[in-house]
């Protein structure tokens, strides 16, 4: 069983909607020229199905990534096996009552959509690519993200307690043929400390006053949707008249949810403050433990004075770090406004393996062109920065290490090799689970794929 491939196949399905039937896939966010294929069910595993468009979409993705190199002759069978095994995990999750919180789904969906928006350049470009508004894309992808999180939870229950010892890591590396040891390009470790530009009292008061003015206009009869389109600073909902759709309890920030649920449908909230800014909320409908609403979001202006204050604070902190009165890692953990990187001593994480070493050619251009001429150990002066959620900030960058291109070895790449060894051991645990459970489900495979051993391991 090529389990590691199955994980990759699942991930690349994220943005494959009905357009996958035409092999329009996200791979550098380019388009495939493959001809459309007729869609249909090719595998059933209990109540779970695999569509032909899923198989062909992933196959097209692999073709694009291969860049003209020959693909394995049984690649479609490998992909089909991977998809089938994913469906087996879902089928067993349903039987075993394994569920995920809808709040987790929403957070993961937003995170992934933000990643793809960054890759393609803007929300507008992503909407143009799929010819759909972002809200519709999210609604269509929610089911896929939900299923992936359920699969991950099942895998965690099956293999989550598996560990590897240093001896097992060395043994794993020694089994790799010499001509198959991977070659790594230049990798760097980069840390950051972020300080948000905080709005002053006058800016906050002006924002609240503006929202109260809009509230009065709505109460006087003007359209909430029209004013949201004109004034709201939430790009995801403004064009929809402020409409956010249905959310369950604990899926939105507490301040917003509390204000929305205090109202009856049609009600209009007072001005509500959250981490995102100030909201004016209108409740549309309550349905069980879910509710739908629309809002107008305004963010207080920070202004150059506030940005300068944040930069001054970082300049002083940088001086302390350079004088060795505090380490960069401790300063990031205790003082950075970016809690995600702060918890990791400020180091940016590699999305692929969770480690701190990043391929130089995959860095964000803003970081690449900054550190390209830096010496290891140096720290930049404060630089203007805009966070993923659009907040004005400044940050300092630290080049912790710069590893030149090299063939993998235990000294420089222990963490990567340990991760690969752990994955291999987890795969064996999953194989054992699969062998135990494959006879407990109903399976039907389209005759066209009867030659594929979709329910076998060790392939």
Automatic annotation (TrEMBL):
Organism (species): Hymenobacter koreensis
Domain PpiC positions: 185-285, 288-398
Signal peptide: 1-23
Pfam families membership: Rotamase
Lineage: Bacteria, Pseudomonadati, Bacteroidota, Cytophagia, Cytophagales
InterPro entries documented for this protein: OMP_Chaperone_SurA (IPR050280), PPIase_dom_sf (IPR046357), PPIase_PpiC (IPR000297), PPIase_PpiC_CS (IPR023058), Trigger_fact/SurA_dom_sf (IPR027304)
Gene Ontology molecular-function annotations: isomerase activity
Name of the protein in its database record: Peptidylprolyl isomerase
Keyword Oxidoreductase applies: no
Keyword Ribosomal protein included in the entry's annotation: no
The entry's keywords: Isomerase, Rotamase, Signal
Domain of life: Bacteria
């Amino acid at each position: 069983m090529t389990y590691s491939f199955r994980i990759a196949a699942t991930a690349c399905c994220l943005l494959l909607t009905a357009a996958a039937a035409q092999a329009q896939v996200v791979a550098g966010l380019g388009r495939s020229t493959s001809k459309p294929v007729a869609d249909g069910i090719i595998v059933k595993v209990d109540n779970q199905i695999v569509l032909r468009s899923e198989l062909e979409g992933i196959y097209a993705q692999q073709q694009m990534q291969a860049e003209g190199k020959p693909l394995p002759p049984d690649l479609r069978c490998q992909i089909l096996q991977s998809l089938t095994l994913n469906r087996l995990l879902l089928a067993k999750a349903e039987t075993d009552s394994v569920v995920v919180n809808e709040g987790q789904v929403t957070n993961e969906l937003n995170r992934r959509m933000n990643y793809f928006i960054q890759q393609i350049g803007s929300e507008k470009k992503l909407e143009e690519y799929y010819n759909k508004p972002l809200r519709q894309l999210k609604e269509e992808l929610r089911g896929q993200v939900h299923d992936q999180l359920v699969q991950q939870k099942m895998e965690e229950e099956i293999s989550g307690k598996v560990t590897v010892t240093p001896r097992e890591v060395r043994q794993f590396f020694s089994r790799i043929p010499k001509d198959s040891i991977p070659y790594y390009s230049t990798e760097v470790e980069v840390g950051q400390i972020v300080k948000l530009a905080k709005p002053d009292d006058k800016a906050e008061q002006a924002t609240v006053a503006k929202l109260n003015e809009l509230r009065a206009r709505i109460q006087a009869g003007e359209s909430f949707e029209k004013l949201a389109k004109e004034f709201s600073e939430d790009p995801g909902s403004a064009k929809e008249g402020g409409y956010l759709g249905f959310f369950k309890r604990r899926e939105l920030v507490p301040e917003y949810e509390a204000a929305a649920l205090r109202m009856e449908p049609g009600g209009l909230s007072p001005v509500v403050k959250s981490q995102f800014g100030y909201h004016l909320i209108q409740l549309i409908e309550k349905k069980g433990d879910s509710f739908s609403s629309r809002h107008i979001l305004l963010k207080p202006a920070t202004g150059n004075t506030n940005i300068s204050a944040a930069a001054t604070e970082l300049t002083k902190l940088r001086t302390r770090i350079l004088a060795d009165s505090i380490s960069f890692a401790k300063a990031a953990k205790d003082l950075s406004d970016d809690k995600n990187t702060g918890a990791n001593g400020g180091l940016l994480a590699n999305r692929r393996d969770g480690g701190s070493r990043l391929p130089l050619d995959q860095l964000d251009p803003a970081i690449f062109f900054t550190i390209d001429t830096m010496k290891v150990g140096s720290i930049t002066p404060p630089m203007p920065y805009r966070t993923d959620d659009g907040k004005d900030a400044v940050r300092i960058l630290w080049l912790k290490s710069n590893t030149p291109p090299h063939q993998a070895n235990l000294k420089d790449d222990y963490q990567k090799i340990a991760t690969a060894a752990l994955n291999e051991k987890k795969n064996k645990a999953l194989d054992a689970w699969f062998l135990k459970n494959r006879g407990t489900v109903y399976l039907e495979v389209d005759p066209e794929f009867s030659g594929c051993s979709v329910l076998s391991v060790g392939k």
